[in-house]
């Protein structure tokens, strides 16, 4: 077999070491431009300073708990609406006149928690309501409210309604307490 110049070039290409996947500074072909680096010139990002003592840790933890535990905290530039919370008790004639039922006038015998949230200038279509067993979150175009509840509720048996004339969201939350079987 005869080797031609073309065969020799192909052989050289086969025997040439492969090029690296990432070119390093020495592997780059020389150019008239200067390659420089900003490494070491940029300050390292500031690390979040943690507490150094137990007292600082407890103080920081107390501040976080306090900020999370504020009732009715709004989001960002949205306003926090006015709201009221009242207990509601289902009372029959036997309870009122005969007083033979186990119910008392205290909130321990109440079945529902009524939350009225006044949202003037807003519409029902703009309201986004989230209810879980321990809190209520209401967000609209103008208002935001995250409200922890004093008692656990049953979200599946609770109701929400909108009073258009008063621009008020009314939540009827069914209470779910440990000893309700005794009171009812």
UniProtKB/TrEMBL annotation:
<dbReference type="GO" id="GO:0045505">
    <property type="term" value="F:dynein intermediate chain binding"/>
</dbReference>
<dbReference type="InterPro" id="IPR008978">
    <property type="entry name" value="HSP20-like_chaperone"/>
</dbReference>
<dbReference type="InterPro" id="IPR007052">
    <property type="entry name" value="CS_dom"/>
</dbReference>
<dbReference type="GO" id="GO:0070286">
    <property type="term" value="P:axonemal dynein complex assembly"/>
</dbReference>
<dbReference type="InterPro" id="IPR026697">
    <property type="entry name" value="DNAAF6"/>
</dbReference>
<comment type="similarity">
    <text>Belongs to the PIH1 family.</text>
</comment>
<feature type="region of interest" description="Disordered">
    <location>
        <begin position="15"/>
        <end position="52"/>
    </location>
</feature>
<dbReference type="Pfam" id="PF18201">
    <property type="entry name" value="PIH1_CS"/>
</dbReference>
<dbReference type="InterPro" id="IPR041442">
    <property type="entry name" value="PIH1D1/2/3_CS-like"/>
</dbReference>
<protein>
    <recommendedName>
        <fullName>CS domain-containing protein</fullName>
    </recommendedName>
</protein>
<dbReference type="GO" id="GO:0051087">
    <property type="term" value="F:protein-folding chaperone binding"/>
</dbReference>
<dbReference type="GO" id="GO:0005737">
    <property type="term" value="C:cytoplasm"/>
</dbReference>
<feature type="domain" description="CS">
    <location>
        <begin position="99"/>
        <end position="183"/>
    </location>
</feature>
């Amino acid at each position: 077999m005869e080797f031609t110049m073309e065969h020799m070039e192909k052989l050289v290409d086969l025997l040439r070491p492969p090029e690296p996947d990432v070119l390093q500074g020495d592997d780059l072909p020389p150019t008239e431009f200067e390659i420089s680096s900003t490494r070491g010139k940029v300050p390292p990002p500031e690390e979040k300073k943690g507490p150094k003592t137990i007292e600082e840790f407890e103080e920081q933890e107390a501040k976080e708990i306090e900020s999370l535990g504020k009732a009715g905290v709004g989001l960002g530039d949205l306003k926090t609406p006015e709201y009221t919370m009242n207990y509601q008790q289902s009372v029959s004639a036997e309870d009122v006149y005969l007083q033979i039922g186990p119910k008392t006038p205290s909130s321990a015998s109440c079945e529902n928690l009524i939350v009225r949230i006044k949202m003037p200038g807003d519409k029902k279509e703009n309201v986004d309501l989230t209810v879980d067993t321990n809190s209520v979150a209401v967000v609209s175009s103008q208002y935001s409210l995250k409200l922890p509840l004093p008692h656990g509720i049953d979200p599946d048996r609770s109701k929400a309604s909108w009073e258009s004339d008063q621009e008020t969201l009314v939540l009827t939350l069914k209470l779910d307490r440990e000893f309700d079987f005794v009171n009812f």
